[in-house]
Design a protein that fits this description.
The chain is 45% helix and 15% strand. The protein has 17 helices and 13 strands.
């Protein structure tokens, strides 16, 4: 099968979508499919060089020109492909694939209109309240664009039933939706103890860790406010970068956190597991998750989890079974949960044991096989094979 992939994020950028699109394309290439990609990385020099054709449109390109270039390169690639798999820059790539007459498999992991409005300071609402609220003209324009490219998709793939609920509310027909849970591209194999991992990374004493792209809805600023109340003078390690990083570093300085916080920045994905292993507690104080790769990785590595009781988190975690879930925005409950795990190692070990159950579902081969079934359906190759 000939497949074009389109993505607005690509390694070495850290993040679930970047990891997903690169490894899905690479796996299908290795399985013998004809793969090509159009991506918008923040490393236009191409530090990651996959063994398939790729066109990079720099993220620093002005938006109108960036969208025009993505449209053009996607059109050219689609004309040489059987199907286009879209995981970002949806509007121009969907229109290009439509013009080329190719099926469009659209992976939606969140609400682009909400994220766009949030980043521009046009809304402070959470994602669920955003769905129920009438907005200003500019935000409604984002919502219209999102409904448009969703309606033009042949199939919409979502990582959780939670995200699927949003997409149905945008008017997508239920028969177009496919839930394909996220998976780990590789199982982290960390053969060192927690204390050895800390020494390798230059940490001492109790360690709390979060891993994410630094966007406002990840609520890392709230985590910083909680740090003074974390037990045993524990340190918070923040792994990842993003548009909020400089503001967060300034905020940490204003709070006088000093040695209690370390901004690690971007690290290669293969190194994330070592930070998870080093942590006594993994935290994710997010207001939105479709289905977090990192929460699954923390379970695999064996680090107890504290996160918010929202969205896709509920589909892979159960409170007091394999994690501690707290109400969104309840700082006191979040701090109390972190401190329980820092001081009650028996509880922490029980959550880790129970978190190791059922991880086979998140195997990479399962995700690839389910995705190939969808691609075969939309291209008609499944019915041709059957006959």
């Amino acid at each position: 099968m000939r497949i074009t992939f389109v993505s607005n994020i690509f390694p070495p950028t850290v993040g679930g979508p970047a990891t997903h699109i690169y490894n899905l394309a690479l796996t299908l290439h290795n399985r013998g499919h004809d793969v090509r990609a159009v991506v918008c990385p923040d490393d236009p020099e191409g530090l990651v060089r996959p063994p398939f054709p790729i066109v990079r449109v720099s993220w620093d390109t002005p938006v109108p020109l960036r969208y025009a270039l993505v449209w053009w390169h996607t059109l050219r690639a689609a004309l040489q492909s059987d199907v286009v798999y879209i995981n970002g820059i949806e509007a121009p790539s969907t229109l290009a694939a439509l013009l080329a007459g190719r099926p469009r498999v659209l992976k939606i992991v969140g609400d682009w209109a909400w994220e766009s409005a949030h980043r521009r300071g046009m809304t402070a609402l959470g994602i669920e309240e955003f769905q129920r609220t009438r907005h200003g003209l500019r935000t409604r324009a984002f919502q219209f664009i999102q409904r448009m490219y969703t309606a033009l998709a042949t199939v919409v793939v979502v990582p959780s039933g939670y995200v699927g609920g949003f997409v149905r509310n945008w008017g997508a027909r239920p028969e177009k939706l496919r839930v394909v849970h996220n998976a780990l591209t590789e199982i982290p194999e960390i053969d060192v103890s927690r204390e050895e991992a800390k020494r390798k990374l230059g940490f001492e004493g109790p360690l709390v860790c979060t891993v994410s792209r630094l966007y406002g809805w990840k609520r890392v600023d709230d985590l910083l406010r909680m740090v003074p109340d974390f037990a045993n003078d524990s340190v918070l390690a923040i792994v990842g970068d993003g548009p909020e990083q400089q503001a967060l570093e300034r905020f940490a300085a204003v709070l006088g956190l000093g040695d209690r916080v370390r901004f690690v920045g971007r690290v290669p994905h293969r190194d994330v597991g070592m930070y998870l292993r080093a942590a006594d507690v993994f935290v994710l104080n997010t207001s939105y998750e479709g289905l977090s790769h990192t929460l699954v990785e923390a379970r695999v590595v064996g680090t107890p989890i504290v996160t918010t009781d929202i969205g896709g988190n509920r589909e892979i975690l159960t409170h007091e079974h394999n994690a501690l879930l707290t109400p969104l925005g309840d700082h006191r409950a979040f701090v109390a949960a972190v401190n329980r795990l820092l001081t009650d190692r028996e509880l922490a070990q029980r959550l880790v044991r129970e978190g190791s159950e059922g991880l086979d579902h998140f195997s990479w081969d399962r995700l690839v096989d389910e995705t190939m079934t969808i691609l075969s359906e939309v291209t008609g190759s499944a019915s041709r094979t059957a006959t």
